[in-house]
Structure formats: structure tokens, C-alpha cells
Amino acid sequence: MALRDAILAALTKGEYSGYDLAKAFDVTVANFWTATPQQLYRELDRMHQDGLIVARTVEQEKRPNKRTYTLTAAGRAALGEFVVSTPKPIAIRDELLVQVEAMTAESVPAVRDSVARKLEVSQAKLRRYEDRREYLLAGRTEHRFLVEADENLGSYLTLARGIAFEQENVRWCELVLDALPERD
Amino acid sequence: MALRDAILAALTKGEYSGYDLAKAFDVTVANFWTATPQQLYRELDRMHQDGLIVARTVEQEKRPNKRTYTLTAAGRAALGEFVVSTPKPIAIRDELLVQVEAMTAESVPAVRDSVARKLEVSQAKLRRYEDRREYLLAGRTEHRFLVEADENLGSYLTLARGIAFEQENVRWCELVLDALPERD
DNA sequence: AGCCGCATGTAACTTGTTACATGATTTC
DNA sequence: GAAATCATGTAACAAGTTACATGCGGCT
């Protein structure tokens, strides 16, 4: 049920459609949750049926209409309960690491290529996260931001985790590329 | 199908039963994949039906018999194909981060407690990983180990990723505990 | 003319989770 | 005497993935 809670959390920041959420789940929410558009549409339907959110159709010119959603009191209550519950330990599942573990002499070049591609993806994510960090800090130091106890404190902290994660990915990819002999 | 590949990778290191794998998936494999015993038993059955592994019943005194599995040529071939395939990008799903994102003034104490518990879990994992690292290095420096191009190179590299991940968890938990006001 | 972005959805399928069941032995 | 460990499994359910479908508007 945590996809549901991730959606509830996202909807505390405003009124969004399934499509909007799909984009958000690719950028800001990406630090801590992922979902495909299909998962979101399905879950929004169910949440609507369960009375956690209300829908509104926004008519648009030159574009398809959208259905945007807002939290109800029941939705807020459900999120409140979730936030104080015991979280499940995270499940890491990384195909690339399985490949590295099972790597043999012949497969080194292919694995090396995969690691090089991951390096690029992580660097790109890191740049986007750093941009958002700059935006949240708005010129303040981290320490100052944290003591000012802004309404975005939670977002900043999750973003900090995302940044550290991608920095580690970059460092690890570099370690692997150094350790694996290049192909001739 | 990556659970299947993670199992194939584990079976390259020896002959294991479902129960053995469940334990391994809690320690060494935990860096890059997780699975419950039930998932393992089901997947092992299917892999057996598909001819990727062969089973052998080991009679034991004073303990229930076990069914251990070994890779077949077909199993090795399937793993070989997987290792050179394009890996799926990883999906992060961390309930605790959803909670931090959705945190409100009233829920701070509960979230703080969850973070404190995560800190302890990460520190414990880190200690186990560091022990295994010491064992793999066997007195050598990392640089020396990497150039010697040991057969455990892959395991070392995935372990390095796991260690970095838990170190970041510890640092992040400490940041959050410092940033969130303690309860009275 | 063809692709990309916007916007929502159905259907089939694969994975992952949870609860339950069994029964002997070892440890506190 | 109770709990933990060893060892395997069934069944029901929840969550996640993949493929397909629709149709307009803007860009190259």
C-alpha cells in the first residue's frame, strides 16, 4: 500500500493529474519511489473509490482534458496514520550488481559497458538533484536551512539522500571502470 | 526474471538448498537483491522444471532432509546471456523516505524514532559487510586486491557498493536526527 | 509525412508478500 | 517448558510490468 501513501504525500503539495504525477515520479519523487503511469492511473482510481481523493475535470483548449485530484479529509487521515507507522525495510534489487557478481572473463567488456552507461545516467540525475538543492537552499547554507525549519524540510532531507545515493553510484562506477581491464 | 538470474549467480558458488539460499539472500546477496524464502522455493521449482538446475536430496540425521540444487549447462548458458544483457534501471522504494517527505510537526517524534531504528540496522549491516571485506582482502590493500584480479572480484565490487550504501544511510540518519528537534 | 508531447485508459501477465501448516531438534 | 533453528511447502492476495489502443496539436 505504499504506492498509495507516496501518492498521498505528493498530493499534499497540490492538485495533480495522473500524467502530472507520472512526471513527478520521474523527478522529485524518484529519490524514494518509482511507479509507471499505468500503476498511477490504477491506484488513483482505487483511491477515488475509497474516498481518499476527489477528482475534477479540467477542460483544456488544444490539449486533452485532464482529471486532477485533491486530498479529502479521509486521505489526509490515511497519510497521517502511515507517517507514524513502522516502515518496511527497503528492498534493493539491482540487475547490474547481479551481473557484476556473476561476471566472467568473457563478459567483462559487456559489463564494463553497462557500468559506463550507468555512470552517465547517475551523473545526469545528480545534476538535476543539485539544481533542485540550490533552489531549495535559496542561497542559504545547509545548516542555516535546517535550523530555520522550513516547510520543505522533509523534501530537502529526502533530496539529500538522493544526492548521496547518486554520488555513491558515480564513485562506484568509476571504481569498477578502473578495476576492469579495458577491451583491446 | 532477475530473481532467477540472482539465484543462478548464487549457484555458481556451490550447491545450495532453498533454505541455504534464503540465508545467503539475507547476508551476501543482500547488497543487490532480496527475496523471501517463499519466492525462492517457488522459483527453484520453476527453474527445475525448465531444466536450469538439477536437484539432489541430501539425507540428514537429526535434521529434515534437504533438496540441494546445482546448475546445469542450460543454467550456465542462461546466466551467460543475462550477464551481457542491458540491465534494468534500479527502482528505489523506501517507505521511510516517503514518511520523511510527508512529515508534519505532530509526526516528527514518530519519524525520528523510525530514523533512529534505521540507523541501528544500518550500523549492524555495515559491521557485517566490513567483516566480509576484511576476509576478502586477506590483509591486502584494496588497490593490490583489484590489480591481482582475483576470482572474487565481482563479489568484492558488489560488496563495496553495499558498504558505501550503508555508510550513506548512517550519515543520512545522523543528519536527520540532528535536524529534527528532539521530543521533550 | 512522421515523430514527440499531452492525456487516459484496458488487459494480460509476472513478481512479490503474507498467512498458514508441519514436525523434529537444539538452546535458554 | 518455551522459543528458536532447521527445512519445505500451499494458497491467496497485492503490487509491478508490458503491450496495446486512442486521438489531437505542434515541430521539423
Automatic annotation (TrEMBL), chains A, B:
Domain Transcription regulator PadR N-terminal: 7-80
Matching InterPro entries: Tscrpt_reg_PadR_C, Tscrpt_reg_PadR_N, WH-like_DNA-bd_sf, WH_DNA-bd_sf
Residue ranges annotated for the Transcription regulator PadR C-terminal domain, each copy included: 92-180
Coiled coil (UniProt feature): none
One Pfam family this sequence matches: Vir_act_alpha_C
Name this polypeptide is given: PadR family transcriptional regulator
Organism: Rhodococcus gannanensis
